[in-house]
Amino acid sequence: MTQEELLEKIVKEVMASISDTPASSAAAPSAAAPKAEGQVTKEDYPIGEKRPDLIQSATGKSFKDLDLDKLLNGELKAEDLRIRPETLELQAQVAESCDRDAFAGNLRRAAELISIPDARLLEIYNALRPYKSTKDELLAIAAELKDQYNAPISAALVAEAAEVYYERKRSKEFR
To answer: Which residues contact 88 (CB under 8 A, 6 or more apart)?
Structure first.
């Protein structure tokens, strides 16, 4: 089996397993979502098959223009395969229509984080480790997420972590 055939097989298996994923019953807070071009429900899932007209890559390529052959031939670049916040919002709508509110919340948080540079995301991730940041440093990150990146859900999560770490003596002040 060639490397291309193996990659194609893996992609097909992943796509097939997505429709078999069991539902979660945990709840998550609702969020201000990016504006998607349409409303979808579980009847529209998988969106790529039933509503591909609603999906574009981060560079504006249509979903139908994204295929393995174009990637392997160099016609597509990595940035062509990046997801848009609007696509994650569509997926969140599908999740909500299946009563998977926690998953919908996770998708909306992910949509918020798309605009944040990868290097900064890693810095924030590391800052959230116990004893790595002071309460004030985490609150500053929360303000940055809210004000600079328009990520209110993630900002609230970081602010909550700042309070909890401080209360449980897990912030840098207690090291």
So the answer is: 34, 107, 108, 110, 111, 114
